[in-house]
Write a structure and sequence with these properties.
Elements lengths: L21 H28 L3 H11 L7 H8 L3 H18 L12
InterPro entries: ArpU-like, RNA_pol_sigma_r3/r4-like
Organism: Bacillus mojavensis
Protein name: Phage-related protein
Length: 111
């Protein structure tokens, strides 16, 4: 947390590029986090833009809108059956995981 009360020190100021103020460090950390967030959001946007129309619509309606929607609301609004909706949704989530390189492999049972 930044300090709001001044502190006085006998240590002379240095001419290096290092920051010693907690306010400056907090601002730089926040800036770094914003840059990382923007890069990640652009990766997601590029990945979702490569999806089919239905896949894109499902992902956007479920996860990228301000108001929360449930699965049954989405497939009712899209005019899909529950079965075909979940089939498209699973495919979209797999494609998103691969596009973001977040896929997880499980070791199968040896026969």
């Amino acid at each position: 947390m930044p300090k709001v009360t001044p502190t006085y020190s006998i240590v002379p100021p240095s001419i290096t590029n290092e920051f010693h103020s907690s306010t400056e460090e907090a601002a730089l950390k926040r800036l770094d986090l914003e840059i990382q967030r923007d890069k990640f959001l652009k990766r997601i946007q590029r990945a979702v833009n490569r999806f089919s129309q239905r896949e894109r619509q499902i992902i956007v309606m479920l996860y990228m809108k301000q108001e929360e929607m449930y699965d049954y609301e989405v497939y009712a609004e899209m005019g899909l059956s529950q079965r075909s909706y979940y089939r498209v949704k699973v495919k979209a989530l797999y494609r998103l995981a691969f596009a973001l390189r977040e896929e997880v492999y499980k070791k199968g049972a040896a026969s």
